[in-house]
Amino acid sequence: MNNLVYDCVVVGTGISAEPVLHHLSKTNLKVLVIDGSEIKNDYCERKESNKEITRLTPKQIFKSLNIYNNTIPIKSTRYSQISCSKFTYIYTSVSGGLSNFWGGGLHEWPDDELTKTTTLPLDKVKESYKDLKNRLICKSRDHFFNSSPFAMPYINDKKVSTRFITKVTEFFFNPHGLSTHPNRRLPFDQHLIWNSKSTILNYINTSKNLIYKSNITVESIRNTSNENTLYCTTPQGDVQIHSKNIFLCCGTINSTLLAFSALQKPHANLELRHTNAAICPVLSLKKSQLYSNNNIDLPDISWSYYPSKNQEPSAAGYLIASNFLLKRFKSRFYRILSPKITVLFTQFFSSLTFLTIYKKDTNSNTHLKITRKSSHNESHSDFLLEISSKPKIQKIMASMLLDMLSLGKWIKNRSILLIPLARLVRIGADVHYTSTMPDSSLKYSEISTNSYGEIQNLVNIYACDPSRLAYLSCLPHSFTSMAIINASMPHIIDKIQKNL
Ligand SMILES: Cc1cc2nc3c(=O)[nH]c(=O)nc-3n(C[C@H](O)[C@H](O)[C@H](O)COP(=O)(O)OP(=O)(O)OC[C@H]3O[C@@H](n4cnc5c(N)ncnc54)[C@H](O)[C@@H]3O)c2cc1C
Q1: Rounded to 5 degrees, what are φ and ψ at 40?
Q2: Nearest CA to ligand 1 atom 53
Q3: Domain 5-498 architecture
Q4: What's the predicted TM-score (pTM) here?
Q5: Could you tell me if the CB of 13 is within 6 A of ligand 1?
Q6: What are the domain boundaries of the chain?
Q7: pLDDT per residue over 222-233, tens digit each?
Q8: Closest CA to ligand 1's atom 3
Q9: CB of 343 within 8 A of CB of 326?
């Protein structure tokens, strides 16, 4: 591996790698795919051994990176998450990345939001939405199963204000999850919501030009016009990989840090925009059959709220039936729950519905400051990462409350009381971030890309994950990020082939 020069190296095997590998697998380019961990579908193993599920297994890619919470240094370990008092960044070393536990919300952004985030032609991005939906079997829940009794009353309610757009949530489906189960479905888990692992393994196994190496963590990159060198650590020791082109698919902060190392900048100040989210339990005084129906185990209605006609959405989210959370709750606490307590909980949960609310990024104010302290040798430098965040909490709360009051009208037949902002930011909410390496014609940043994701001042290094989105909608972003990468790939491959 040390002596070979690859045409392309793809760093990361999360969802962002899917469009990259899909296109590269159709070429004759010599491609190396690497990830800090290994692709394995551990769901069955966990089920059999009945182990506690720990999905958040964060990692710190730069071992020598010191993390400061404004002024207090945070000790970074492989199992810590980067956080400061108002911001938590979750990252994972598990192959497949955050798609191991993501919400599965699949949203196509409206045109006006797309034009704020990319300068690629809109029709190309929209074609990409279609391509992705077809090849990843993204269908509405209805397509596979009967309509949910929970969802349909909401969908059919003619009185629902036109400001709310509701639809049965679309999910990525993993075909294996569907076909192997006797009832053609599994409970809510990463098999039902699309998990990139099996798709990516499939590309690797069926394409002759993709070579996959697990347990290789890229620590830094050296960029020259002829070649890129990736300095990596492996359990067996340090290795150097040489490649003409690099696709960074390793999540916003990891990709940004690697770009930073390649740019050899002494420091960078970056903005990190993120959506604010809350989970709000909705209490219903009228206990309904709908809520206690046992078939409901998915968050199956997504909604977006338009304050006035033709405007972009002010908030978006999911409506989650209580059974979904009840099942998770029971499975988590089954050891300590007596039958009596279980009945009590079931009754309590049966009068609850949960709303997840996502707000646009306008009130977030998180900054990353990366400083290069010293460079001991070629491969390992000392970096300092400071994160500071001052979200405008009062403004966020006020605008969420306004949305929820309107939402109250919408669910008036069933629910009486809203308890707002049970938790202002749920775990994972902060991961809806963007803007560290945006499209330079749309937004200024110290590190930016061109329309196709090539990082400015770096030759042949492409940002291929949400770090290159210039704008953050309140609608989930991953699908749009994938569509933008998918739309860029033909151009990038064309360029690579011309330069061979
Ligand atoms: C709780 C939660 C719910 C979410 N819900 C939604 C939702 O409903 N809809 C939506 O659109 N988005 C959602 N998201 C966001 C979504 O999960 C992420 O945007 C998406 O998974 C990012 O994918 P990625 O491939 O860019 O990065 P990641 O998923 O982070 O994958 C990065 C990969 O790179 C590898 N890697 C990292 N650094 C290195 C390195 N230095 N060297 C080698 N390998 C490396 C990792 O092992 C990993 O495999 C949610 C996130 C969370 C946490």
Answers
A1: -150, 145
A2: 428
A3: 3-Layer(bba) Sandwich (3.50)
A4: 0.87
A5: yes
A6: 5-498
A7: 988 789 999 988
A8: 102
A9: no
